[in-house]
Amino acid sequence: MKLYQVALKEIARRKIRTLYTTSSIALSVAMLIATLLAGIAGQKDVMLIIARYGHSLTIFPATTNETSLRSFGIGAGHYIPEDALPDIKRVYDQAIKSGWEKRGAFMMNPGLPGGVDSIEEAIFTPRLYEETTVAGKRVVVTGVRPQDEYKARFWWEVDAGQLLAGGDEVMVGKVFASVTGVKVGDTLEINRRLLTVRGILRETDSPDDYMIFGDLKTVQTVFGKPNLVSLVNVRAMCNYCPVGDAELAINQKVVGVRATSQREIAEAQHKILKNVTNVILSLVLLSLGIACMAVFNMVMGTIHNRIREVGLLKVVGASRAQLVRLFMYEAVAIGVIGGLAGYGAGYLLAITVGPALVSTAVIEGHWWHPLLAVAAATLTSVVATLYPALHVSRIRAAEAFRAL
Amino acid sequence: MTKPIAMLIGVSKVYRVGQESVRALSSVSIDIRRGDYLALTGASGSGKSTLLNIIGGIDAPSEGEVWVDGERIDRLTEQRLLQIRRKKISFVFQEPRLMPSLTALENVLLPAAFYRCADRVEERGLELLARVGLAKRASHLAHQLSGGEAQRVCIARALFNQPMLILADEPTGSLDHDTRRDIVGLLEVLNAEGNTIVMVTHDPELAGRAKRRISIRDGVIHADSGVVQPY
Predict the structure, then answer these.
(1) Global pTM exceeds 0.80
(2) Residue among A231, A378, A361 at smallest CA distance from A291
(3) Beta bridge partners of A215
(4) Does the distance separating the beta carbons of B101 and A13 come in below 8 Å?
(5) Touching check for A70 and chain B: CB below 8 Å?
(6) A110, A263, A299, B127: most buried by Cβ count inside 10 Å?
(7) CA-to-CA distance for A373 and A27, rounded, in angstroms?
(8) Are B91 and A401 a contacting pair at CB < 8 A?
(9) Domains in chain B, please, with CATH?
């Protein structure tokens, strides 16, 4: 006969009490796990957005307030001349360099290790957007510089065919292809010019899925917009580049354009989500505290009934430490059961409710989540049981014997 | 004459109840020898249970000395007293106290959960259950046993650590007449096998069958048959 066997048999006998105790712990643990899983998934989602679109600038043509109401002015007759791109690049590079220096970075002269020219150059990807009817559907045709675009949008892959190379070819978004039934090798008439479909872009969950992409020069020719672009995306290619400084400098120094930094928006989203998750986690920890008090009250309530049991165990030779251990074994067993049940319930809750909170979030389980659930539940149970266990073990043998 | 295995010298016990002091025992001196079958008798509140607890090291005397197996125990720490109780003393109570979650055998083996007290623990438990006539009830839970059977399990448990002294506080107090006779018979057999038994009882018939009787009145030994008599 082992002490833990006595403990396990006791909790098996007190089914209602065990069920009540484990349920209150499991409920709190379920909340903890659900919040954690949904929170992590949401934050990952935002981080993915930052990885994709973050650390970049988008430079639009300056517009009037009235035209800005229509898609930020895109397609409203405002363009950036391609000739302005070298100026924009120069202002950008200078702003990044002085931004680093302002932050205390020591920039070496060009040509030396660690020199300013060792920073990976930003990628400028100009785009021309034109709306037209293709295959009976209104669609945006986008002119891009394919090689630069692939570097900036490294996640682009094709579902069928090949990526756009240039010339009289186009690549279509997944949604456009599905809606129109367009396949690789088909010919599309775009503004009275015939272009061949080279590839279908894999779904990106972005506006790219609805567009037709062609070589910038070709699209400019097709729509009669030589040397004009609708916007320029700038991908910084470094994690902590002072993109905000570049945004400010372009807006101040380059006439006819306005730059906006997307990273700041994504970071703000990330911060909000993180704060909300932290607030929920605090509430969950509070509920664990409440569960702890519920277990404490219940254990204290059963102490009176258990004094006889304690008396008997003292009679047969239990020491004070062994009595505390016996109660702790019970607490650990209840914690483990409550933790596992809570993990299961929390996971179900997360996969049910999580996507409703963050639509694109993917709930992922990790090996340490069940361990965390069991640890939190066990800690709650042990903390709740410790004082009653110490209290009851302190009863003197004579008092315990009188109870028999 | 054998050496006493337990000895009380001038033991008094005073309880404080609020502002008042209640004297439960006054200058009690007893020696208990190996093989004794001693009945402590007396009216309720006469001090016999207090005396039993003091012999068992459960309660400490206010005055006097208590010796068990040559060691003075009235000034020992709780931990040392626990060691003495584990190795040398066992208790049987009026109500048969068993752990409800355990079977009869597991209840007998319960001391093994707290200290090493026998080799081949399970075999010994089964032997003891057979000795008290419950070999076939080993796997029954406490609530599946009758009062008499439960008390037999308690006696088997009391024998598990091979104690030199069995202290029984009215072991037949809650049993019917037939069951009482069974338990008395069992205690007599155990005594005949060499176990020393000190028993508190109200029952004159049970006391009459003990080898030695000590009558207590108002915390003082009123009569001690003293000599070992055959039952």
Answers:
(1) no
(2) A378
(3) A144
(4) yes
(5) no
(6) A299
(7) 11
(8) yes
(9) 34-57+77-224 (3.40.50.300)
